[in-house]
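TA notes, week 10

Several of you asked for a full example with nothing omitted. So below is the full record: structure tokens for the whole chain, then the designed sequence directly under it. When grading your own attempts, check the secondary structure regions first.
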């Protein structure tokens, strides 16, 4: 299946491009009179993306697929590996991990980096270490977990990269558990935002840790490094990052009036710039978009080619109302819609099967992707019809998957 978060791969999908829905565009234009957000958004971040957490719709993107050092934001993948192991019962919150000389020296007190300050050659419970990573961004805790779970930090970093591929994140590569600089330790803001979304959806039992304001450990009192938590924005996570090679970044999630948005930015010049830009983008995301209906449940959106069926095409429907998030202020905006599917579809197909995606893009590059379902049954055809279909596909250069 083609990726629906980036550009569709023309070698692996069929796409029908249509100009759609004057009614929805008119509705969006009418919102201008209500004093909504500016038509175009620009950012001072080197890389940025804004997602709707529920639908995955891209509200805004700028260099979102550009690889860059993620700094401590990559600790989200460290945590994702740990959370998965907890969920599968391979480790427990009561497990204790040794803070080796390497963990202490590389990520602890002598390192001069963010640390939990666990004494060298002592053990600490995973429960406490997770707070040390999430709230204090403790590099020593990350290294101790990596060594305890995988035997070495390098082996754990491979687990992180493997987990990224399992989650459908093709670009991220990890060389350590901390985000300390390595020229091959890289992520995109798109993959950071998708990772944050995965953590919230897959591990809701652990997500409240990201909203905790402080953590007391031994003689230390650590305050959450997320500068957005105290603000009246509905922010309840996730992670900041800074190294000189990347600048300042943040992955944040906020909820207002039942709607959740995820933000990832990187490459800001200062902590203050990071904070103000994150606030500006989040506020724009909440105020500048509205939900509009494009199709009723049984409306035929398009057709998809079928191989080996008793008919050549199957109609595509939403099955439910097809609603998308569109910028309110872009009066008269042009929408491009693509129907994306692995071509050809193989019979038999049952009515209601999800067989395609509808990708709706605005001029400002906001992107919605919704499922399309088969509008009717397509039974498998006989041997002769399947043979003719195969010849037709070969003649047109289509490859059966």
């Amino acid at each position: 299946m083609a990726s629906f978060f980036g550009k569709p791969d023309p070698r692996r999908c069929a796409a029908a491009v249509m100009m759609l829905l004057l009614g929805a565009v008119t509705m969006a234009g009418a919102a201008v009179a209500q004093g909504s957000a500016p038509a175009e958004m620009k950012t001072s971040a080197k890389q940025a993306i804004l997602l709707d957490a529920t639908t995955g719709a891209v509200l805004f993107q700028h260099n979102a697929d550009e690889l860059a050092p993620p700094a401590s934001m990559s600790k989200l993948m460290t945590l994702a590996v740990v959370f998965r192991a907890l969920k599968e019962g391979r480790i427990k919150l009561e497990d204790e991990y040794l803070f080796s000389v390497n963990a202490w020296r590389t990520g602890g007190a002598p390192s001069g980096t963010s640390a939990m300050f666990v004494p060298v050659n002592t053990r600490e419970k995973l429960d406490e270490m997770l707070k040390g990573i999430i709230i204090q961004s403790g590099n020593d805790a990350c290294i101790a977990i990596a060594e305890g779970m995988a035997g070495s930090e390098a082996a754990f970093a491979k687990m992180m990269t493997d987990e990224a591929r399992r989650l459908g994140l093709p670009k991220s590569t990890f060389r350590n558990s901390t985000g300390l600089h390595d020229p091959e330790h890289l992520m995109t803001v798109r993959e950071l935002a998708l990772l944050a979304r995965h953590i919230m959806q897959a591990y809701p039992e652990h997500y409240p840790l990201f909203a905790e304001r402080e953590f007391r450990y031994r003689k230390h009192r650590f305050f959450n490094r997320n500068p957005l938590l105290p603000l009246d924005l509905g922010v309840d996570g996730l992670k900041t990052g800074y190294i000189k090679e990347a600048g300042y970044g943040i992955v944040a999630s906020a909820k207002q009036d039942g709607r959740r948005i995820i933000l990832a930015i990187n490459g800001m010049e200062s902590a203050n710039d990071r904070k103000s830009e994150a606030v500006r983008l989040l506020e724009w995301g909440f105020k500048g978009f509205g939900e509009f209906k494009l199709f009723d449940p049984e409306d035929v959106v398009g057709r998809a080619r079928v191989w080996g069926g008793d008919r050549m095409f199957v109609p595509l429907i939403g099955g439910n109302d097809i609603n998308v998030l569109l910028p309110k202020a872009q009066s008269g905006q042009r929408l491009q819609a693509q129907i994306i599917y692995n071509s050809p579809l193989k019979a038999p197909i049952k009515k209601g099967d999800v067989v395609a995606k509808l990708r709706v893009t605005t001029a400002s590059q906001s992107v919605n992707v919704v499922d399309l379902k088969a509008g009717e049954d397509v039974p498998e055809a006989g041997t002769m019809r399947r043979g003719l279909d195969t010849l037709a596909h070969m003649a047109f250069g289509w490859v059966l998957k």
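The first helix runs from residue 22 to 30. Use that as a sanity check on your answer.
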